[in-house]
Amino acid sequence: NAGVTQTPKFQVLKTGQSMTLQCAQDMNHNSMYWYRQDPGMGLRLIYYSASEGTTDKGEVPNGYNVSRLNKREFSLRLESAAPSQTSVYFCASSVPVAGTSTDTQYFGPGTRLTVL
Amino acid sequence: RKEVEQDPGPFNVPEGATVAFNCTYSNSASQSFFWYRQDCRKEPKLLMSVYSSGNEDGRFTAQLNRASQYISLLIRDSKLSDSATYLCVVPGEDAGNMLTFGGGTRLMVKP
What we know:
The structure holds two protein chains of two kinds. Chain A is mainly β. Helix content of chain A is 0%, strand content 53%. Chain A is built from no helices and eleven strands. Chain A has strands spanning 4-7, 10-13, 19-25, 31-37, 43-49, 56-57, 64-68, 74-78, 87-96, 103-107, 111-115. In chain B, a hairpin with a 2-residue loop joins strand 6 and strand 7. The termini of chain B are far apart. Helix content of chain B is 0%, strand content 53%. By secondary structure, chain B is an all-beta fold. Classes of the chains: A mainly beta, B mainly beta.
């Protein structure tokens, strides 16, 4: 049981290049998320997917697109990378907490992206 | 008030000390709360969940004060390995199961 996996671990892009960050989970979770984390700041939600076939914008969606390919996989695409997108990107999946309306989230190891 | 607010620290404490962090939140309807631990350059990992007044797990105690809208994390007998950033996490004010993460409190335990 690998949990949440992400590829690549590191990436350097030039301004204007595109790339896709991959995320997969083997815990049979319905919900998946993409966050970015910048120095000194909390995790900020980019996009999420409550179930296979659905995606919704989070707090900072501009410049990103996502695809929920199947229940296991949720990818994040940067169409035209900008230096402001230099960050650490975390994927997460979640399971509902019994008796509450809240989920517990489990994170992948992150992708460190630098845009020059 | 920000949705989730934490003192960024760092808290520098000697081994064996007891240290406590507070976290304030704005969503009075929140029912579940979490503390995550994040080591340098690693992903956040769930440390504790808090659903009622509090929760205890070994050296770690989380307490909830609904009236004042804050949760606290107490670490007793600090170890060098406790050095990390501790993230306070609460349900967001938007609909759904979204969580809002605090900026984290950095703890450094010294020999």
